[in-house]
Every structure is written in structure tokens, then in C-alpha cells.
Specification:
The complex is a heterodimer of chains A (113) and B (497).
Chain A (H helix, E strand, L loop, with lengths): L1 H19 L4 H22 L21 H31 L15
Chain B lengths: L1 H4 L3 H16 L3 H29 L2 E4 L10 E4 L1 H24 L2 H5 L2 H17 L3 H20 L4 H32 L4 H9 L6 H18 L8 H6 L3 H25 L5 H25 L3 H22 L2 H32 L15 H15 L6 H14 L3 H26 L15 H19 L1 H16 L2 H4 L1 H5 L1
Antiparallel strand pairs in B: 1-2
Helix pairs in contact in B: 2-3, 2-6, 3-4, 4-6, 4-12, 4-15, 4-19, 4-20, 6-7, 7-8, 8-10, 10-12, 12-14, 12-15, 13-14, 13-18, 14-15, 14-17, 14-18, 15-16, 15-17, 15-19, 15-20, 16-18, 16-19, 17-18
The chains are: A mainly alpha (113), B mainly alpha (497).
């Protein structure tokens, strides 16, 4: 089971790399959020997927699932959500001000002031 | 009680101030007052904390009273205390400087709250004792810095801001990957606990070297080390001066701090390899920074490349990880935060007064501004490390330690870099303040009393810091101990278990 999720994380990170290397700003932003999903999946796998009961304290249960990776992922998801929202706003602003969503055109010093 | 509240103040105070300002709304005058008062309070609290830590040793707060390896702990050792004090001083002067330079529109659109949230994140990253919590605080100050770098929406800011965002988001994701590996090896996130677990660990430690390389990649991107500095000169030159000063003085230094902390606590098993990589990268950073500093006459660019040189020098000190090296690196780190702020603020004054970025277009400014001229001269001497000024003592220890460890080439590169720093900064001084301008310069009529107060204030802080080096030595000795003797950092866990 771990092997499958690790391979899945690898595929996600590979496709994210492909997207980030493209020239369109929107694709880069999608790539960044796919990258974060791949990373979250990997954190989940690092705590071992199935190894016991729910992590609620009980005398009868001796093996628990590790609850920590899930807490970490929750935090990381919130952060990447905020980042995606901000970068989409930035994309809109960039498109309005610079008139392009192609990173090829986003170089040199624009002469506005 | 004191040890519970005091370590939290540098995180709570700016956060609270930021939230209060959000509720005040788009009114710059109350924002100014709140942020200046917060700055003063933070300087006071941080100075008292340095004294308290010096007398009583490391302060530890366990958030919600969860005992140490399980909950999040805030560890306020001497390193954190000194860095927080410097951050507070830098922030206070930059806030004062912003009153007359950032512009009414930016002030209206929540410039000061963003500065406060950034300081929250920076102080949090300095003080936290939990590696995942450090990641969260990294994201807090990075998110605020994305807003600051694009605030005002000039074209150059949007263009460079987007690159800055993508580079940092990718490297943050790698930080998470490194954390995931680290967690799967050690099963802990508390930095002190990871240190103890790794020093008793007898399994396969090759994976630790891989984690070390992932962490180098992450923090080198944030700090602007050699192959990964490509975003820095462009992005840092885009926003207005107070924001550049904040970024240049504080953001890169958090990366340096994170490198020093993780490489002293976690990656000590194969120090021969990992610390060599670090040393090599640091030296290449110095060389790249020197080339940049020589190549430009744009004043902002010269100082930005000087940041790279300084970071290289500090990392050389930390990569030695011995007594002299870490004292020197710690001292130089604090010195560089202060002096880079001072230089950025002085150059900002020149740029605001003349409207020109390029030193080659200027000349003869010493007639109109003798005070700024001589202050700049003092700052330049301090940056290059001429003896009574603070740059000297840090470099002395770093070079001594490099020779002791048989890295003569590293020591010589550090020494030669001082010459190039001196040349590049004197180039600005001579071109701006001496001679006659090629074309007559029209000086802009700006209100500048607060600009001068902040800039001269920072240079005075730097000079006092240099003159009291002898007095401060035991403090820095104590700070360096957490690096070269990491068990002094992790022994707060002993009292808990």
C-alpha cells in the first residue's frame, strides 16, 4: 500500500515539475498546487498507512495509527490553499498590468517609473 | 510565569499589533503610531530577554503545557534572544523610515500590518523549538513578504514578485519533503529530541546525508547561496527601499539561521561530507557576490550583492562548527543585519533625494549633505571590517577558525572578499559624494528628518555594537555554545522526562 502511494506521489511531483517548467503563468500555479498535493501524500505515507486502530486512547487497543502526519498535512493544506489564492490574485493583477501571462515576456525592466 | 510569557512576546506583540491595525482600517496615522509603539515595546522586551537569558539560561515555554517532545515548545536560547533583539531594532528603525518614504497609498493599503506579520513569522522561526513549527513560521513571513514585494503593483514589482513567489513556494515544498524524510527516520519533530535520538541512533545514517542535501537546497534558496541566488538580485531590487531593507536585513538571515541550527543539531554524523558541501557553496557564494558587486554601479545592486558576500562569510564560519567559527559567525550575523539595514537606509535617502539609482550619475553630494556623507563613510568602514567597527571582530574569528581547521583557501577568500567589499562600497562613496556630477542634479524637495533619524540611528547602533564587542563577548560565547555544543541546546528535555 505504501509503495502505491509513494509511486502516486512521484507521479504527482513529476507532473507538477512539468507544469512549473511551462511558460504560462496559470500552468505554473496549477503545477505548484499539484506539487503540494504530491508532497502531502508523501508525508501521509511516511507515518505508515495501516498499522492499527484509530488514535484514540483506550486500554483495549495497543497499536495506533500515527496521528501526527495527518495534523501536519492539515496545516500544510491550509498554507498551500492560502498560497494558491494569493498567487491567483497575483496572476490576475499581473495580466492586467503587464498584459501577458507568458513568462517569456516577463523579463527586463518595464519602463513605467 | 516570566519564562512562560517572555519567550512568547516577540511573536505575540507584532501579531497583535497587526490584527489591531487591520481593525483600525485604512487610516495611516494610527497605523504609524501602533507600529512605532510596538517596535519600542519589542526592543524593550527583547533587551530584557537577553539579560534574563544571560543570567538564568535558556527559557523554554511549552505551548498549552504539553510536555516537551510531544507538544510545541518555544526555546528562547541566547541565539534566539540576540536575533530577536536585532530584528526588533531593525524593524523599529525601518518603520520610522517608512513614515516619509513608503508613500501614502501603500500605508493606506496595510503596509504596516504586513510588516508586523512578517516580523511575527521571523521571530517565530528564530524562537521555535519544533522543526515543523519552523516551517509554518517560514510560510507566515513568506506570505507577508509576497504581499510586501507586490504592494503598490508597479510593473517591475509584479514581474519580479511572481518569480520570487514561485521560487519560494517550490523550495517550501521541498522543506516539507525534507521534514517528511526526517520524521520517518526519527519519529519526532522537536529539534532537541531529534538531536538526542540521532546521537543514540545506530541504524543506517546514509539517509541523513540525503536529508541534509534536501535541507541545504531549501535553506540555500531562502538565504541566496551560490547556485540558487539567481532570484535574489532581481527580486530584491524591485520593491521600495524600506521593504528592500527589511528583506535584505532579515529574510536571508532567517535562512542562514535555519542552516546553522539544523546543521548543528541534526546533521552531525557525516559532518565531513555535509559541512564540506556547505563550505564549498559558501565560498562560491562569496566569489559570485564579489563579481556582482564589482560589475554594477547601480547602488541597490551593489548592496544586494554585498548581502551575498556576507552570507557566504557567515556560512563559512558556521560550516567550521567549532568554538571560534561559531562565535565569529554569530557576531558577523548580527553585525550584518544591522549594517545592511543602515546602508540600505542611507542609499534610500540618496535615491529619494536625487531620484537616481545609479552611482555613476551622481557626484558632489557632500556639499549639501555632509552628515549623510560621513555617516555613509562610517557605515562603509564598518561593512568592510576596519578594526574599531564590528565587521572586524566577526571576520577575525571566522578566519582564525578557518586557518585552525586547515581551510587556508577559505580563509584567504574571506580576507580577499573584504577588499572587494571595501572597493565596491568606496566606489559608491567616491562617485556619490566626491567630485562633480556629469550633469547637474536637481535635488528633490522631500521631508527627510525621519529618514535621517533612522539611517543615522542604525549606524550609531552598529558603531556602539562594535565598540562594546569586548563587553558583549560572554553573551556571544553563550550563543555560540548552542551551535558547537548542541547538547547544551537539547538538555532542557532532561528536566522534563
Amino acid at each position: 500500500m505504501e509503495l502505491v502511494t509513494i509511486i502516486l506521489a512521484g507521479i504527482l511531483i513529476a507532473s507538477a515539475t512539468y507544469l512549473i517548467l511551462s511558460k504560462s503563468v496559470l500552468r505554473i500555479i496549477i503545477g505548484v498546487s499539484v506539487l503540494s498535493h504530491g508532497v502531502h501524500l508523501m508525508i501521509l505515507t511516511m507515518g505508515e498507512l495501516k498499522r492499527g486502530n484509530v488514535p484514540v486512547l483506550d486500554d483495549a487497543v495497543s497499536t495506533y495509527t500515527d496521528p501526527l502526519p495527518q495534523a501536519l498535512i492539515l496545516t500544510a493544506i491550509v498554507i498551500s490553499f492560502a498560497l494558491t489564492a494569493f498567487s491567483l490574485v497575483l496572476l490576475l493583477r499581473n495580466y492586467k498590468e503587464l498584459g501577458t501571462d507568458n513568462t517569456e515576456d516577463m523579463k527586463g525592466v518595464p519602463h513605467d517609473d | 510565569m516570566t519564562t512562560n510569557i517572555l519567550p512568547m512576546l516577540p511573536i505575540i506583540l507584532p501579531f497583535l499589533a497587526g490584527v489591531i491595525m487591520l481593525f483600525i482600517g485604512k487610516r495611516p496615522m494610527p497605523h504609524r503610531m501602533v507600529s512605532a509603539v510596538t517596535g519600542l515595546l519589542m526592543v524593550g522586551a527583547a533587551a530584557f530577554s537577553v539579560y534574563y537569558v544571560y543570567v538564568n539560561g535558556t527559557m523554554v515555554t511549552f505551548i498549552s503545557n504539553w510536555s516537551a517532545p510531544f507538544g510545541i515548545s518555544v526555546v528562547y536560547d541566547m541565539v534566539a534572544a540576540l536575533l530577536v533583539l536585532t530584528t526588533s531594532i531593525v524593524m523599529f528603525f525601518i518603520v520610522i523610515y517608512s513614515f516619509q518614504s513608503i508613500g501614502y497609498e501603500r500605508e493606506k493599503y496595510y503596509y504596516y500590518p504586513m510588516v508586523m506579520f512578517m516580523i511575527t513569522g521571523i521571530n517565530g522561526a528564530f524562537t521555535t523549538g519544533d522543526i515543523f513549527n519552523m516551517f509554518v513560521f517560514f510560510e507566515v513571513f513568506l506570505l507577508a513578504s509576497y504581499v510586501l514585494i507586490t504592494l503598490g503593483s508597479r510593473k517591475i514589482q509584479l514581474q519580479e514578485g511572481f518569480k520570487y513567489l514561485v521560487v519560494n513556494v517550490v523550495s517550501s515544498n521541498f522543506f516539507l519533503i525534507g521534514l517528511a524524510y526526517l520524521y520517518s527516520v526519527t519519529g519526532s519533530l522537536n529539534m532537541a529530541d531529534i538531536h538526542i535520538k540521532l546521537s543514540n541512533y545506530d541504524g543506517n545514517l546514509a539517509i541523513m546525508t540525503i536529508i541534509a542535501v534536501v535541507f541545504i537546497f531549501v535553506f540555500a534558496t531562502k538565504a541566496g547561496l551560490f547556485p540558487l541566488y539567481f532570484w535574489m538580485p532581481g527580486s530584491y531590487a524591485a520593491p521600495p527601499m524600506p521593504i528592500i531593507a527589511l528583506f535584505g536585513a532579515l529574510l536571508t538571515k532567517v535562512g542562514v539561521y535555519a542552516i546553522a541550527r539544523t546543521f548543528s543539531l541534526f546533521f552531525t554524523n557525516d559532518a565531513g561530507y555535509t559541512h564540506q558541501v556547505l563550505l564549498l557553496l559558501a565560498l562560491l557564494t562569496i566569489v559570485a557576490g564579489c563579481i556582482g558587486a564589482l560589475a554594477y554601479t547601480d547602488m541597490k545592486k551593489i548592496i544586494i550583492y554585498n548581502i551575498m558576500i556576507a552570507i557566504g562569510v557567515i556560512i563559512v564560519g558556521f560550516s567550521m562548527m567549532d568554538y571560534a567559527g561559531t562565535i565569529g559567525a554569530m557576531y558577523y550575523l548580527i553585525h550584518d543585519m544591522i549594517i545592511k539595514t543602515a546602508l540600505f537606509l542611507l542609499i534610500g535617502f540618496i535615491i529619494y533625494r536625487t531620484g537616481k539609482n545609479d552611482a555613476a550619475d551622481l557626484g558632489g553630494l557632500i556639499k549639501q549633505h555632509p552628515v549623510v556623507g560621513w555617516t555613509f563613510f562610517v557605515a562603509a568602514m564598518s561593512l568592510a571590517g576596519v578594526p574599531p567597527f564590528p565587521g572586524f571582530f566577526g571576520k577575525l574569528f571566522i578566519v582564525e577558525s578557518a586557518f585552525d581547521n586547515g581551510h587556508s583557501i577559505a580563509a584567504i577568500i574571506v580576507l580577499l572578499s573584504s577588499l572587494i567589499v571595501l572597493y565596491s562600497i568606496m566606489k559608491i562613496f567616491i562617485k556619490v559624494f566626491w567630485g562633480e556630477p556629469a550633469q547637474p542634479i536637481e535635488l528633490k524637495n522631500i521631508k527627510s528628518d525621519k529618514l535621517l533619524f533612522a539611517a543615522v540611528g542604525m549606524v550609531i547602533v552598529s558603531t556602539v555594537f562594535g565598540l562594546s564587542a569586548d563587553f558583549l563577548f560572554p553573551v556571544f560565547e553563550m550563543a555560540a555554545e548552542s551551535f558547537y555544543d548542541p547538547s547544551s541546546y537539547s538538555n532542557y528535555l532532561m528536566g522534563v522526562e
